[in-house]
Records
---
Amino acid sequence: MPKGRYRLFGIVMDLSSGGLAVESPGLKVQPMEKVEYALSIPHAGLRLERIQMAPVSDAILADHTDSEDGVCHRRGFCFGPMSPAQQERLHRILQSYTDVSLLD
């Protein structure tokens, strides 16, 4: 199990007030208990840090063109308890995410 801080990047494929689904090509690290995550929407300047999420699903997508080895993980997470400030930030992220999704 890795020690210290490390970063894993993925593309948010689905986002709601209850959790999210992330796709990440070539992801080797397994989800662990008691890990804190950050959710960032760079184009909107929004970031939600120190959120707890529990994995609820893990699917392997074979023949994925964005990955060197052709494998991509799609993982589902549910959000843990959040402070009122975190809930407000998540609400703003959801609003931004919804606005951008409507433009696509």
Note: The first helix runs from residue 84 to 103.
---
Amino acid sequence: MSGFKCPGAERIRASFPDEVTCACGRKVEIWPDEGKVRCPGCGRTVSREMPPACIEWCAAAKECVGEQLYSRYLRAKEERGGSPARKEAGS
């Protein structure tokens, strides 16, 4: 299927951040593959819940979103206390 793009991975590949409000009131940008960032205003760590994504269970996830985004997403999910139920292809 040429040109097919997985709709579940669109948010992971998105080229725009979410805005989260820090305790100090400043708006902080968090990209889809990040679970937490440091507020540039006060230095606090700002985090947010990472919604479930197909990257956590899909055997084609690494190829679909690319090695770099795949690794960054899973690392951020683990840092947030999530345990991705990711199955490697062939397991």
Note: The longest strand covers residues 18-21.
---
Amino acid sequence: MILVVASTIIAVLYLLFVFSSIWLLLNHLAATHAQVMTATQELPQSDFARFWYVGKILVMQRAADFGIAIPPSPWFKATFQTDIFSPAAPPGTVWLYPPTMGVLAMLFSALPLAASFWLWRIFSIAAASFLLRAGGLGWLPIAAGLASPAAFHDLLAGQNGTLLAGLFVSSLLCFGAKQRLGGALAGLLCIKPQAAIALPMILLQRRYLAALFWCLGTAAAMIALSIFLEGWRSWVWFFTVAEPASGRILNLPLNRLAPGGYTVLMMARSFHASVAEAWALQAVSGVIAAILIRAAWTHPDGEPVTRMALTACLATLLTPYGYFYDLVGFSIGMAAMFEKSPMRRKPLFAALWLFGGYTNTLQNLTGFVLMPAAAAIGAWAIWRADRPESRAS
């Protein structure tokens, strides 16, 4: 009876989330009042508009280096009124990504903005599906993860969470039997380094040296490509403007931070901790998570799916900077644990899968960031389930 009630509640909450997301998407893309991107207003394509804008600017700048003038169109100048490459750009609008992400932005800026948005979504879902299948994950957790509430957040925001989840989760699944592939996928995460924050605890072990070499080689190739396409100044800008801006954003008062953060740092701030206290709690959480990740990957006979899901939980406790659209990988892990767990444990993993998207809703309702508690519960449940006596039961 309890399982039936829990399943019904989760199903209803999921359907409500899906229908509300579709309604928001249709209204967002049909909006006529948001056709100018300023410091306080977005285009209907949301965060993707910034990505596309950066690609256009980088193409113009690189063409100018070779004496080719590509002037911005009147529409471009009228639409994009905030220079997100400027150090003076308001927090939350400045471009924070390394030049390796700029390589992708340049590729997707070739099409008009609206068409490029949908191509980006199709590419992200297709690439993540292909990579997760190559990593050995079944179609059920792949579909559930990529249709999770967190993935809908990623869709609405026009963000990169789905693609990065495909790279991160697939790399974890491949580190055991396909180290070269796993290392190459890990190296591609240099487009957003904080998405790979858990990987050093794994790769800096002797048994994963092959994956480490492929990771470093792939990252080096991406960096070289970014220098070729964007020039050295792109990296100078990243270290002198973007990186300091990231630190300033994390130290802003909570009411000025973008909503939807999920980290221990942001949770502490939501409970009125000072900046210093929040960073101290984040440091403690990060150290504990790092130790547990290393311990989980010390034994070569670990079950790949379980170890991946555990790492996805612990990674959320490790990073100080993350938002709801970054929780697609966590949702994939919970969907995978749901598939392989006995019936009595399925409601827990289904609820955690749902929580990856509802964390922003709960923050709006309560004012508190609660995702770290959910991630800790998930890690504890997986750790216990992976013990020999638990598997025997």
Note: The two ends are 22 Å apart (CA to CA).
---
Amino acid sequence: MPRVILYKGTFAYDAVNVFIRELAAGLSDLGREVTIIDLTTEKATRAQRVREALSQPFECIVSFAGIGFHPRSEELGLRMYSNLPAPFVTVLVDHPSCALELFAMRDMLITCYDRSHVAFLQKYLGPDRKIGFLPHGGSVAGQGAALEKRSIDVLFPGSFANVDEAYARFRAACSDEVFDILDYVVERLIQADCEPMEDALSTVLHAESRDEWWRKLSEYLPLLESFVKPYKRMEVLTHLDRAGIAVEIVGSSWPPDLFRHHKVRPAVPYPEVLQMMRQSKIVLNMGFVPDGSHERAFSAMLNGAVPACDFNRYLAERFTDGNEILLFRWTQLQQLPAMLMRTLGDDARRQEQSAKAAAAASKDTWAARAPLLLDFVRSAAHAGPVPGASP
């Protein structure tokens, strides 16, 4: 029986280890023996456990966010992972610019949840690297209330980030010359629905006749994202608050008195977030990814809520706006309150949308991602660049 090794670790969000368990179940359904290695154990035990796992035949190692690989460590770095008999697959959970050091392993296979991220890495790393598109999968909670008894109108799961502080960090990290360019990039991103950061950077540099700076300035993209995404989220929530649409916000660090109508709750474990989705009529998804999806849109659907998502090309291709999903444009934010009110005001229509959403997302679980992941691994065994598997 082919064996797949999965790494479990410590993540900023406990959701990732839920993803790992669900992916493991999908791999088991495909006839794989799954070995899960907990990298949170004591250092010597961890290294020994990894060596033992690698000493036996395996089909691939799957690591979310590249955990278990540290380029500068002889113990779990390039020395240990050089000349592996099978691929090391990194499943990215953030923009690739947040993890550029990871890609020191040239044989590493990489999956991205956004098609624009694939294009970024192909440009940054070169065409010989194996990079695939794999949107995150949704998760299902236990039994919840019937659709007509849902007690939460609009739910937003997400953490707070102070926009002014994020901008100050961005400014402090740049020389004046670099800041002048990147601040122009920020302006472009704020004026656009879903322009990839790296494309906006490329456009600005080309206008300044500094195309050769693209690679170097790509390292600043996480700083740009750390400002632009919270800025857009805050604008959306403020707009809804002023329109009198109460959103239940669950996440860390939100000031309790920031809004007039919204209800703020502290962060809860991911399984509890899923239960809250089971109690929600609409789940507000503000991922602001240009051409792909985090898990939240799919989890909302699978748990019987209607997802209201910021527009991007992948979601628009995958689902029908107004049918299984609500897509709002950042550049047309004034239309969002009416869109939500129409859905909340028509229970019969909303329940019909919820049923269609759950059916449409039935193939968007992490278990359903397992065959796509293995297809990518098999495809990457062939020579040449690999576009990856797409659902």
Note: The radius of gyration is 21 Å.
